[in-house]
Design brief:
binds zinc ion, alpha+beta, single chain, four-stranded antiparallel β-sheet
């Protein structure tokens, strides 16, 4: 009996490990998991420390956002160009390839879709030297599979020097699958060659925290729980009852039986500093009060001062208001 139980326990543990951490590092550089390994893992911007290669409001004294991790290269060819294979972070599907580096400041890049705990997450790998030739949209990939070679492609004027060669790695939530149509409506004449796979339509979460916590917690790790634990920048009310985020990230909706009984007239959203709506509460007309399409309900000033880089809200005298960036995000979210 004891042996049988031990056997069962082993099977359970093995299954747990197999389920394990949801995301893997996208290259062989694992210094992120070493004590004080950060400067072997991150590439900073020119002349700046490694912290500028992490995720968040890490540039221009907090006023500039970096939506991914810049991961240092480990191997180079004779000419000093990077040769590190770039690996998929989880099982998923190829959704977009850009192999014309002049069309993006991401240079050559790949976007994959993953489904974790019913949540759609999109990983993005940028500045690639070369994308695997047989990859095409719709194709399934396995976690840890090589999909590209690290590089330094970008369409920016200053470019990326050999010594700063890195992969820019993001984990994103998708704002709206009607992005292209929204953009045509709001900015006619502006060219969008990347369809919905435009940076504006992808909201990054911190891959460092996801990778480190996932490794520490193994099978117990929950991405949903991570999203629900985001620090709140502000709360807003939107007078819209049907938008794609509600379906795509349904697990983030908190039930409100009173509003559901009376009739839902809109939603109250909690946003983190990067604009990720991580809690959505249905509200009745009586609960919403104001008639405005979008209304700022509350502000967490401490979080704003810590992470102001997205400029979603601003203080006008004693009053806080949504900026054009904030309104723009809400327009796209609810389009
Ligand atoms: Zn970067």
């Amino acid at each position: 009996m004891v042996r049988r139980l031990a056997g069962l326990l082993f099977l359970t543990l093995a299954a747990g490990i197999a389920r394990g951490q949801p995301f893997l590092l996208p290259t062989a550089n694992h210094a992120l998991f070493e004590k004080n390994g950060e400067d072997k893992f991150f590439v900073g911007t020119v002349g700046k420390p490694w912290t500028t290669g992490t995720f968040g409001c890490v540039r221009s004294d907090g006023w500039q956002m970096h939506e991914g991790l810049d991961i240092r290269c480990l191997q180079r060819d004779k000419r000093g160009e990077p040769t590190d294979p770039v690996l998929t972070t989880a099982d998923g599907t190829v959704v977009y390839l850009n192999t014309r580096p002049s069309l993006s400041n991401y240079g050559n890049y790949v976007v994959l879709r993953h489904e974790i705990e019913g949540l759609e997450i999109y990983s993005l790998y940028a500045h690639l030297r070369e994308v695997r030739h047989d990859l095409k949209p719709g194709q399934a990939v396995r976690a840890g599979e090589a999909i590209a070679v690290m590089g330094r492609t970008a369409n920016t004027h200053e470019g990326i020097s050999k010594d700063r060669a890195h992969v820019h790695f993001e984990l994103n939530l998708l704002v709206n699958d009607r992005f292209a149509s929204w953009q045509k409506k709001t900015g006619p004449g502006r060219r969008n060659v990347h369809g919905e796979w435009n940076g504006q339509n992808l909201l990054g979460i911190d891959p460092q925290r996801v990778l480190v916590e996932g490794r520490e917690q193994g099978a117990r790790y929950s991405l949903l729980n991570f999203l629900q634990r985001q620090a709140e920048l502000c709360r807003v009310a939107v007078r819209k009852t049907d938008f794609p985020w509600l379906r795509r990230y349904h697990a983030l909706v908190r039930p409100n039986p009173a509003a559901q009984k009376e009739g839902v007239a809109g939603y109250e959203l909690a946003l983190n500093f990067n604009g990720v709506p991580f809690e959505l509460i249905p509200r009745s007309a009586a609960e919403l009060k104001a008639k405005a399409k979008f209304q700022l309900l509350s502000v967490n000033e401490a979080e704003y001062h810590k992470n102001p880089g997205r400029r979603l809200i601003a203080q006008k005298g004693a009053r806080w208001e949504l900026t054009s960036h904030g309104l723009n995000l809400l327009e796209l979210l609810t389009y």
